[in-house]
C-alpha cells in the first residue's frame, strides 16, 4: 500500500537529496517551499469549504422562508 512521505522523510530521502543538489536548492529552502505550498492548499480548501457552507446556509434559509410564506397562503 502506497503512502505519502512526511516532510522529514522527504528531506532525508537520498534520491530527493540528489535532485535538490542537482537543482542547486538546499534542504531548508525546499522545506520552506513545501510549507508554503501546504499552507496555500489548506487556505484554498478552507475557503472552498466556507463558500460551500455559506451556499448551503442560504439555500436552506430560502427554503425555510418559502415554507413559512406558503404556510398561511398555500
Structural class: mainly alpha
Low-confidence stretches at least 5 residues in length (pLDDT < 50)?
Answer: none
* Shape type: rod-shaped
Mean pLDDT: 88
Please trace the helix and strand order, writing H or E for each element: HHH
Radius of gyration: 24 Å
Largest sheet: none
Residue share in β-strands = under 5%
Tally of helical segments: 3
Calculate the terminal CA-CA distance, rounded to whole Å: 58 Å
Helicity, as a percent range: over 70%
Quantity of strands, as a count: 0
Nutshell version of this structure?
Helix content is 85%, strand content 0%.
Describe it for me?
- This protein has 74 residues and is mainly alpha-helical.
- It has helices spanning 7-12, 14-23, 27-73.
- The longest helix has 47 residues, at 27-73.
Topology readout:
Elements: H1 7-12, H2 14-23, H3 27-73
Question: What characteristics describe this protein?
Answer:
mainly alpha; 74 residues; single chain
